[in-house]
Prior knowledge:
Blueprint lengths: L2 E5 L3 E3 L4 E8 L4 E7 L6 E7 L5 E3 L7 E6 L4 E6 L8 E8 L4 H7 L8 E2 L3 E6 L1
Parallel strand pairs: 2-11
Antiparallel strand pairs: 1-3, 3-8, 4-5, 4-9, 5-6, 7-8, 9-10, 9-11
Amino acid sequence: QVHLVESGGDSVQAGGSLTLSCMVNGYTYCLAWFRQAPGQEREPVAGISTEDGSTYYADSVKGRFTISRDNDENTVSLQMNSLKPEDTANYYCAARKACNPTWFRTFWKAPANYDYWGQGTHVTVSS
Length: 127
């Protein structure tokens, strides 16, 4: 069993920065961040493969967000810069245990492909 606990959500002004953290209890091969705004579907933000370190980003956050993993501390982080009001959402950490890097490159964006989810942390960006 894998447990994920997110933290770091807050309210910030547009243009500001936040770092979200997800503590991972249990080894996983692939991790990702998703977000969901009220009335919207859950959407992918960023993914990382533990096996080869490859990272992937949604077009909407590319160049502004950075996903990283600290294996010593068993955490995966999401550094968010140049935040925009449209980044306002609940942010969720997700994990998949069986994850070939080649497969992950193609399928990381689909929420149904993840086995475990955290409870979420809320980010509000005001203009």
